[in-house]
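User: What would this chain look like folded?
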Amino acid sequence: MPNALNPNPKHVPVLDSRFVPAVLWNRAYRERVARDAAGQDLLLALTRPDGTVFRHAVRVLPDGEANRPLNLRYVERLLKFLLWMKGGSRVLVAGSDTLAAQLAKVFSAEGARAFDDQTVGRKVFLDERLRIEARSMEEMPGEFSTSAALGRNLDGCRIGFDLGGSDRKCAAVIDGEVVHSEEVEWSPYFESDPNYHFEGIMDSLRRAARHMPRVDAIGGSSAGVYVNNEPRVSSLFRGVSDKDFDKHVRPMFGRVREAWKGVPFEIANDGEVTALAASMSLKDNAVLGISMGTSLAAGYCDGDGRITSWLNELAFVPMDYADSAPRDEWSGDLGCGVQCFSQQAVARLAPLAGLDYADEMPLPERLSAVQAMMKKGDERARRIFETIGVYFGYSVAWFAEFYEIRHLLILGRVTSGEGGEIVIEKGKQILADEFPELAQSVGMTTPDEDFKRHGQAIAAASLPSLRSGRR
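Assistant: Here's the prediction, encoded as C-alpha cells.
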C-alpha cells in the first residue's frame, strides 16, 4: 500500500533499492489530500495520567472504502512516531470515528502494535493500557504540560553522573567547573540484585563528594525512559525481575536522594542530557542529538534551551514505509530507526554487500570488522555506510517535521572513522538535493574531545535547580 503513492526519491540506497523514505511518502500523501476538496480535518491528542496533553492536527482524505487503507497507513505511522517522540497513555481522536476505531484495534493488546500498548501505555505511564478513543472537536483538550524544564543550573557544588552499560562516569562540578571526574567499570545489565546498582551509584557519588566542600545538588543521566526521577523502561536493569523492578528499582533514585539528605536531585535520559550538553557547548538551542550505537538513541534540547518531558525514543519510530522493510525483533514493527542507524543496521546490510559473518559473531565485532575494512578502502564496506547515509539524509528531513532543529549532534560507534564521514556527507548531499531549505538551516556537528570528557558531566550536574529540587 505505501508504494501506491510512488514518492520517487532522488537518492536510492545502493544496498536497499526498495527503501521508501517516510518523509517523501507523507509528502506524497499530503499532496493527494490537498488536491481533494473533500479532505477532512483530524486532530490527535496524546494525554498522560498527570494531565499533560500534546496535540497534533492534520488533514486526511475523505472517509470511504477506497481511501481507508491510505488514511490508516498515514495516521497509524504518525501516531506511532508521536507515541515514541512525546509519549502518552491515552489518545483522543477527533474528526473520524472510523480512524479512531481502526487505531484502537491496531494498538490493542491483540493488535499489530501490542508492543506499544504494553510498553508505552503500561510500563512508561503505569496505565492499565494504551487507550484510543473517539471525540468531537469540541471535546478535545488543549495543549498542556505539567513538567518543569530542566538544566543550565551551574551554581554551587554539584555532582554529575552518567550510568552506562560498561562504566559509571561521575564528576564533581563547582560553579560550572569540573574539579574531578572518573570512570568506574561495572556490569549492570544482567545483575538480578538491584542493590548492586544502588551501591554502585552511591559509591560513585561518594568518590565525587570527596573533592568538594559540600554537595548542593546531584544530577544524572542514563539510558532508558525516566518519569519523575523513576526508571520506567531501562536496559540498565534488564537482569532485575519485574517484581523487584517495581519494588526496588523504580524508587531507587528516591533512596539515593534521601541518602544525600534530600538535596535537589534530577535524573534524565542520557540522550536528553547529551543534547543539553551540546546546546551549552554551542551556545545555541534547538539541538537534536542522534547516537548510532548499540541501538538508536536520541535527545532534544528545545528552542528555549531546556530539555523536556518528551520520550524521544527514536529507535522505535518508523522511517522506512516499504512493505518489505526490515522487522525490529523487539517491537515486531517494520522500518524502525534501530534497523537503519545502529550496529544492527550494519550487521543487516553486511550480507547484502557481500560480507558474511557467522551468526554467533557478536554485533559489536561485526561493526568493528566492517570499520576495519572501511579503513582499508574496501568498496563493500563503503556501500554499507553509503546506504546508512541515505537513510540518514531522508530521516533528518523527517525529524524536522516534528522538531525545531538548528543543530544536529551526531555521535555513536557507527559514526566513527571513515564510515561515519561517509554517512554524514551522504546525509548532507541528500538535504542539499531534496530539502535545500533544511541544508541551509540545520548545522551538523560531532563532539570534540573536551565535550566527550566533561560536557555530559556538566550538563547532568546542571539538571536540578537549587531553588526547586523535586521533593
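Residues 379-399 form the longest helix (21 residues). If you want, I can go into more detail on any region.
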